[in-house]
Amino acid sequence: MNKLNFHNNRVMQDRRSVCIFLPDDESLNIIINVKILCHQLLVQVCDLLRLKDCHLFGLSVIQNNEHVYMELSQKLYKYCPKEWKKEASKGIDQFGPPMIIHFRVQYYVENGRLISDRAARYYYYWHLRKQVLHSQCVLREEAYFLLAAFALQADLGNFKRNKHCGKYFEPEAYFPSWVVSKRGKDYILKHIPNMHKDQFALTASEAYLKYIKEAVRLDDVAVHYYRLYKVQN
User: Which residue segment(s) compose the domain that 198 sits in?
Assistant: First the structure.
């Protein structure tokens, strides 16, 4: 993964390293003050991404295999591992293992046109891309093929016969695993090119909008799932 680096000028003793995973599989390495508020970190991330409209996004950590979104008014160390909080910096560019944080969509909208900021729309699209890979709407199988066509147009542009032939994309990157298992890679690679071709002249921004519109129609995409735990009295 490509990494963007950012360093502030805080006292070294209070500095820690965090790694922010982004929806498009990129990451940010940021050096922060250990007492930073979650809101301040979110603002830093949005500034680095040149994202003007960040109210749909949040920061999360994984606890018990679930994404737990941070309360922005809290200090970051409320969510950090104990070792990370205690780990003192050892000098310039000498920090312990970074705290892993995820930048992802926290609040959903059905109409992508409500997201006017291009960068915000881009990351919103990529978040839905990841959600679709885990979708299980077996009665809406055709929707996954249409979504793949929109995504290929967004990612690769117009279909070109001399360039987009054979295995020019990985089915697993565009379809849930159950669709790939059911139909097979050969079937997908045979039929998707014509659907990709049908999206000719759509700009990446227009393809994002079509993808968002179709993806949120799937019942299990624009939602967050959490386990229910039995409370003992």
Answer: 131-217
